[in-house]
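Exercise 7. Given the encoded structure of a 338-residue chain, write a plausible sequence.
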């Protein structure tokens, strides 16, 4: 990892944990500050990163520091808006006899040292009971065109609806996951396992950003969990290999103080996951969408099928087993559109 990333993670760790783990980087040029800030936005951790900078005497120019502060303030304001929107929707659904929960978002943000500094996104509402009532409920509240599988725009906030918290491509493991979720909605161990499964699914598709890695790191370090039970859950869901690689990445970047449920991996597989996060992240999806927009349907579908096959083979060391079912699901979906 080069000097840029060492500086970047110094401030990010400080924002996450509030603990100094070395001397503050000094003598950064204006261009270097701008590059670090760009990286924090690209990885969707700018609020936490700026908070880390704020705890030191290191500062960029007044012009750039003003941008940092405005970015952090905007994130805080949007998180407050999302929290209010979440409460309103949960209350509305409860009145209609629909049981739901927030997945990710504020439900993981609450474990951050400063929850309002976690970068915001869409609201993900998981409907545990009453999915069959959801369409009528939304239509009655003005969302007349909503259909299952669609998101909706509530003012400045996008709300996504899910009939289950998470799913996997392997149908046998997915059946086990849904049974576990049906009997253990509240357990933090299964919640963290679902975060890891969600992260793994995004690694297979287009890659991930650092925000999702931070979510897992924060819960592993701060949430009161039974580590041995979490390890058993990860093994039952056949995600122990990927989890150990992810823990190796967290150990490499996020400092000490962790008690991992499985031994962290080291070496080439961790290097590969690191390249996925920083080399692909949110870029790959935009690149693929731009490429698809220039192709006609048959060419686009076949091109995507070839892309998924190559990607699954490339990443099979990170996601053994699941990569096979991923290829099958993606190719069936794309070829079915021909």
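Solution.
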């Amino acid at each position: 990892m080069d000097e840029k990333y060492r500086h970047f993670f110094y401030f990010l760790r400080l924002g996450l944990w509030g603990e100094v783990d070395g001397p503050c980087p000094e003598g950064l040029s204006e261009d270097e500050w701008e590059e670090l800030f760009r990286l924090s936005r690209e990885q969707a951790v700018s609020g936490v990163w700026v908070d880390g900078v704020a705890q030191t005497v290191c500062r960029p120019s007044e012009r750039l520091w003003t941008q940092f502060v405005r970015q952090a303030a905007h994130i805080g304001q949007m998180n407050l808006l999302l929290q209010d929107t979440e409460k309103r929707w949960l209350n509305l659904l409860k009145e209609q006899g629909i049981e739901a929960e927030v997945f990710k978002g504020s439900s993981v943000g609450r474990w951050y040292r400063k929850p309002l500094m976690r970068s915001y996104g869409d609201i993900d509402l998981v409907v545990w009971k009453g999915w069959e009532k959801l369409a009528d409920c939304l239509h009655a509240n003005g969302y007349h065109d909503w259909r299952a599988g669609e998101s909706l725009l509530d003012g400045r906030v996008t709300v996504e609806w899910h009939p289950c918290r998470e799913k996997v491509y392997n149908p046998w493991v997915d059946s086990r996951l849904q049974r576990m979720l049906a009997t253990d909605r509240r357990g933090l161990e299964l919640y963290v396992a679902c975060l890891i499964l969600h992260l793994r699914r995004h690694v297979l598709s287009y890659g991930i950003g650092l925000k999702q890695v931070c979510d897992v790191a924060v819960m592993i370090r701060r949430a009161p969990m039974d580590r041995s039970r979490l390890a058993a859950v990860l093994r039952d869901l056949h995600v122990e290999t990927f989890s150990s690689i992810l823990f190796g990445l967290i150990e490499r970047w996020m400092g000490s103080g962790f008690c991992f449920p499985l031994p962290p991996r080291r070496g080439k597989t961790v290097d590969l996951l690191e390249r996925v996060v920083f080399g692909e992240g949110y870029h790959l999806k935009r690149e693929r969408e731009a490429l698809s927009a220039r192709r006609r349907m048959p060419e686009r579908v076949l091109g995507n099928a070839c892309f998924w096959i190559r990607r699954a083979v490339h990443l099979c060391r990170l996601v053994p087993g699941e990569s096979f079912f991923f290829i099958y699901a993606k190719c069936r979906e794309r070829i079915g559109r021909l």
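Remark. The first strand starts at residue 99 and ends at 103. Students should compare their own answers with the one above.
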